[in-house]
Amino acid sequence: MSLRADFLWGGAIAANQAEGAYQKDGKGMGLVDILPAGGELRWHALENPKQAIETTYDHYPSHEAIDFYHTYKEDIKLFAEMGFKVFRTSISWPRIFPKGDELEPNEAGLKFYDDLFDECHKYGIEPLVTLNHFDTPLYLATEYGGWRNRKLIEFYERYAKVVLERYKDKVKYWLTFNEINMVLHIPFFGAGLMFEEGENKDQIKFQAAHHQLVASSLATKAAKEIVGEDVMVGCMLAAGEVYPYSCHPDDMLKAVQENRKQYFFIDVQSRGEYSTYTKRMFEELGVEVEMEQGDKELLKKYPVDFISFSYYSSRLTVADTDRQVEQSAANAFESGKNPYLEESEWGWQIDPVGLRVTMNNLYDRYQKPLFIVENGLGAVDELEDDTVEDDYRIEYMRDHLEQMIEAVKDGVDLLGYTSWGCIDLVSAGTGEMKKRYGFIYVDRDNDGNGTGKRYKKKSFDWYKKVIESNGKQL
């Protein structure tokens, strides 16, 4: 068994990490626009967003990013040269509704995405579009409390209907929320949440999650009504199997419980209802999710068509906290360090087999097509003689693609693969440019200096051959 003939090879970016032009043509402020660059400084701002709003920083990387807003034609031409079949990007919600609660959209913002999607189709590239990729308008966070407020369902539905109507003839693959489970781990990014002292954070996060799940179903409903039944709407999970630290039964049970925390969201979006285990989970967390009449029926009637996910690393958990287990970075998740794995320069453990494990478990659980929409290696690249000899990236991706193909041989139905940061962009977690993922080098540094010129890395030609051979030449 090999990849389907129409397998969707491509790459992925996010508007808030690439476009820049943060106040161009009427765009409003997004969550990311108040965040500085730099690991510790960035994370402090994410954990204390109210303080970040009141602080003036030296550099805001999202304000210019890689200027994709102005360079998209040049960049898409390079994607086409690699042979992309699909290009995953997001629509900036505050570019369409600057504050988020307006009744009428910003025409200049809509026009930009018209031109962007037209440019994709010029080369036969299908857009795969995320409606909300960590890009809730800042005004909705400061004035409404973010997704804790049920009013955001109404604002999101209005936004979704506007863009679905506008691009119904240009986009047939949609994602409702990026890494929807990040509301539990980076609540400001995931849901625009800011907490008061003494609040039950779990209550607020899961209530916000419920509002997003309802909004996701409403967007799916709107897509089916506006675009038609052939439209493909997916959910998106920050995935990575949680392994038990040992074969001790307590560790095994803890791994089951930790995995459920990520599957919870997709259970609802894919199956259309809250799983039975959530009752006990909510009781133990002191959470009571408020639902309105009709919520359960809506969730049941409008599940997603496919499951998309990001995969960077597996994770590891231990039941007995007295056991000393070294901790590892893992895409904002708490994780023990797996002694059998190497790690990237940013401490993310590298586990290609974990991708196969994750794919099998997701497909066994949901029996819906999967789509890998983020995977890649963040590394420090050195530009020499107008290129980057990034053999380490090729090795990382080859190892993961081999395991991806093995999962397809296992029987997993896989729609496509879009590598993360196909062109260098601003890191979401650290705000850095030096953490590069792309096949294309962008001459810009952590402080925003540089020409912005694009250079093909060695991995550019490698990925081109991968696509040409439909994964047979790795």
Please give a quick description of this structure:
By secondary structure, the protein is an alpha/beta fold.
Give me the secondary-structure topology.
Elements: E1 8-12, H1 15-18, H2 39-47, H3 49-53, H4 68-82, E2 86-90, H5 93-96, H6 107-122, E3 126-130, H7 138-144, H8 151-166, E4 173-175, H9 187-191, H10 201-226, E5 232-239, E6 242-244, H11 249-271, H12 277-285, H13 295-301, E7 306-311, E8 315-317, E9 327-328, E10 335-336, E11 342-343, E12 349-350, H14 352-366, E13 370-374, H15 391-409, E14 414-420, E15 440-442, E16 454-456, H16 458-468
Helix pairs in contact: 4-6, 8-10, 10-13, 14-15
Q: What would your notes on this structure say?
A:
This protein has one domain: Alpha-Beta Barrel (TIM Barrel). α10 packs across α13 and α14 packs parallel to α15. The strands form five sheets. Strands 1-2-3-4-5-7-13-14 form an eight-stranded parallel barrel, surrounded by four helices. The two termini are 17 Å apart. It is α/β, with parallel strands linked by helices and 474 residues long. The chain is built from 16 helices and 16 strands. Keywords: Glycosidase, Hydrolase. It is an enzyme of class 3 (hydrolase). This is 6-phospho-beta-glucosidase. GO terms for molecular function: 6-phospho-beta-glucosidase activity.
